[in-house]
Amino acid sequence: MNIDLQAREIQPLRHTFSHVAQAQGGDKPASRYLEATLGAQALTNFHYRPTWDPAHTLFDPARSAIRLADWNVLRDPRQFYYATWTMARARQQEAMEANFQFVEQRGLADRMPEAVKAQALTLLMPLRHVAWGGNMNNAAICAYGFGTPFTAPAMFHAMDQLGAAQYLTRVGLTLGGPESLDEGKAAWMGAPAWQRLRHYVEDSFVEADPMALFVAQNLALDGLLYPLVYGALVDDHLSLQGGTAVAMLTAFMPEWHEESARWVDAVVKTAAAASEDNRRLLSDWARQWGERAKGALAPVAEMVLGETAQTVIDEVWEAWQARCAKAGLAV
Which of 106, 149, 179, 287 makes a 20 to 30 Å CA pair with 99? Predict the structure, then answer.
């Protein structure tokens, strides 16, 4: 008996899910990112308003003063959904484990000048609490924001901040032992150099508008802190003083900031382009929180750089203003 096998092409009845087709305006093939985010925001079947906020529905775009006809436009240019985000972070985790292993096996921490080691701990340990604040704020953006393309990356961002705090903890344990973590907390709670930054973080906790909080945390504070601390203070200053190991142990932070800034800028640029009211609101928030962040970081930079700190802060501030202008804001 002969069996005659023939190839037959089967035309799919549809190219993507109906809710994705509705969100992207037609039955076109969609990427995994689009299928995981477009049209995924829950909209119906919520019969009761939350008792803790009866003025809004459970998922309500009116929680923000920003107005968008379609919140699906706030897409992540990194195309992160759970699988791609975890794979990217797993690769970075392997690289960071190799960095810690390299430093520990070769005793690079012990070879650092004691003054540089003390300066690194004084600078980095209180920042564990800043990163924890970033975790809390992005979790709030996810909870009270609207639209899965906006809220899902916010939750990834929250966990990234937690990862940064954990890396800082490991740096403290490697360079100074457990007592360095207590000293960092004591400095965060009482040292004058940290109180303006602590005030900033605590004020951000009571910002109710998720888009304003997004600007305060992700655009203003992180947009100034990461280039200043992990660029100018760690990579440029401490490395030249013999603290190359510190730069290796914090390598995740500048790499992550450069990558996540693409998402932050895309959100701001898209929301600002939607209307003049949005652009004015976002510009006002960026100006207000940016000025506060610059002032709060000044004592931290002076603690490390002394009289030359103002020059470095001005350079970071100018770069941040240029970034905001590129996103369409008037800061």
Answer: 179
